[in-house]
Amino acid sequence: MVAICSTCGLPEELCMCEEIAREQQRIKIYSDKRRYGKVMTIVEGIDESDINMDELARKLKTKCAAGGTVKDGRIELQGEHRKKVQKALEKMGFNVETR
């Protein structure tokens, strides 16, 4: 029997819920200086209920070859990676704003 999505009611192989959620979110990317002058790239505005934050952070950390974490609904990456993160998120279908 075919599994049906509880949100949209379509079969799971045709489900568009996650793609629609990506398009509707406004994501902000900015840099912040931390202790000892270290730079962190912050990605915020992602709704945790629609998108798996841990998986997305893992993809971004791999793309940027940097460490990072998911904290308080934000993804924090070590280093200055605004352009790489913006390109990666846009390729995944997110709407991105940079500061």
Give a verbal description of the structure:
The structure is a single chain. With 99 residues, the protein is of the alpha+beta class. It has one domain: Translation Initiation Factor Eif1, CATH 3.30.780. 31% of the residues lie in helices and 27% in strands. It has 3 helices and 5 strands, in the order αββαββαβ. It has helices at residues 17-24, 53-64, 82-92, and strands at 26-33, 39-44, 68-71, 74-78, 95-98. It has a 5-stranded mixed sheet with strand order 3-4-2-1-5. A hairpin with a 2-residue loop joins strand 3 and strand 4. The longest helix has 12 residues, at 53-64. It is elongated and about 55 Å long. The model has no long low-confidence stretch (mean pLDDT 88).
CATH architecture: 2-Layer Sandwich
The tally of beta strands, per DSSP, is 5
Q: How much of the sequence is in beta strands?
A: 25-35%
CATH topology name, in short, is Translation Initiation Factor Eif1
Properties at a glance:
single chain; 99 residues; alpha+beta; Translation Initiation Factor Eif1; five-stranded mixed beta sheet; 3 helices; elongated
Please sum up the structure shown.
The chain has 99 residues and is of the alpha+beta class. The chain has 3 helices and 5 strands. The protein has a single domain, classed as SUI1-like domain (Translation Initiation Factor Eif1, 2-Layer Sandwich), CATH 3.30.780.10.
Secondary structure layout plus pairing:
Layout: H1 17-24, E1 26-33, E2 39-44, H2 53-64, E3 68-71, E4 74-78, H3 82-92, E5 95-98
